[in-house]
Amino acid sequence: MTDHSQDASINDNPRNQHHSLLLKGLQEFNSREFYEAHETLEDYWRMLKDDEKELVQSIIQAAVAYYHFGRGNRVGARKLLVRAVARAESVARDTLGIKTEPYLETIKKSLQTVESDSNEAMEMPTISFI
Asked: In angstroms, rounded to a whole number, what is the distance separating the alpha carbons of residues 78 and 68?
């Protein structure tokens, strides 16, 4: 596995109070290791409640959607992106100290790409902290 200790978007959080599973899962997500991110974040998700749980579930669903898309499963990717968008829209802005607006806007663009059935490259978010 690649060392992402220099990823500014994850490790330069001045509070640095985030759970290690969240940090690891977001590093994997940002490295496009979507299956691994899903596995890591699922372990973290079980500890959460309310908006925090909803946001992490959105990220998990987006990760699985991108995994499906990469394997040619556009139907599965669309289904999961619809759910990921709905969950991300339902949470308070910057839940868990994550910049939710850029994340949400990018997964909406990803959904549009899947729904358009075009062959254009799909934009994928890089998740970062406020």
From this structure: 9
CATH homologous superfamily, domain 18-116: TTHA0068-like (1.10.3450.10)
The whole model's pTM is what? 0.87
Going by the DSSP 8-state scheme, the letter that residue 97 receives in this structure is G
Q: Please say whether the beta carbons of 113 and 120 come within 8 A.
A: yes
| pLDDT tens-place string over residues 43-82 | 999 999 999 999 999 999 999 999 999 999 999 999 999 9
Give the Cβ contact number of residue 101 at 10 Å: 11
Q: How far is CA 99 from CA 55, 91, 105, 108, in A?
A: 11, 12, 11, 15
Instruction: Say how far apart CA 110 and CA 116 lie, in whole Å.
Output: 10
